[in-house]
Amino acid sequence: MRAQDEQQYIDYVTARLPELRRLAGSLCKDRHRADDIVQTAITKLYVHWRKAKSVDHLDAYVRTIVVRTFLNEYRRPWSRVKLTDEPIERAAPSGREVETRLVVANALDRVPPKLRTVLVLRFLYDLPVREVAETLGCPENTVKSHTARGLAVLRRQLGPNLAIFDRKGQPA
Question: Which of 58, 64, 129, 160 could pair with 135 in a Cys bridge, judged by C-beta atoms 3.0 to 4.6 Å apart?
Answer without folding.
Answer: 64
